[in-house]
Amino acid sequence: MLQVDLTARVRSNFGKGAARSLRRAGQTPAVLYGPKTDPVALELDTRSFTKTLLGLKRRNAVVTLDVEGSDKRHVLIRELQVDPVQDTLTHADFYEIIIDEPTVFHVPIQYEGNCIGVELGGELHAHINSVDIKGKPLDIPDFISLDVTSLQLGDKLTCADMDIPDNVSLLADADQVCTAVVSPTVEIEPEEEEAEAAEGAEAAEGSEGEAPASE
Asked: Which domain holds residue 160?
């Protein structure tokens, strides 16, 4: 798993007014918490933090957070708040983890290869795009690769087909379908739909006009 470094300072001013002042000064308010950690209010440089986030590109990452006047902490970015108008960071939540303890991560699936079934006219449907995996943070892969090249029409890949590292465990059902190659859906043209509807209406009218059979 990707590792990045950040620096932060403990902040003592709280409230909306203090937060606005921090943002005007180029700082992002944040909070650090965890199962074995009392909440700590922090502030960090917005520019360097934004640069780090752009480098992550929504990937899982362990952040080594160097808090001024304290020990370094291993954390995950749990939540980010963004101003919907200015598209700027307004707050960040960091969740402290124990680097040697197993943790659950949501890992993306990366489908690779040119599918034979698609070349024959089929459609490749991805049923899931990520999966939950449990393991020590540094043992978690950035993504799980599934090769779809050999899939024919009607073939599928399940979670059992994933190549999972030995030191992590898959939490999903092994029989869960990840992707499948299906025949393309035959679409009825609007003219055909109208013709079929008209035929159905005529048939219904004809049956209503028939006299009941005599006994």
From this structure: 103-182
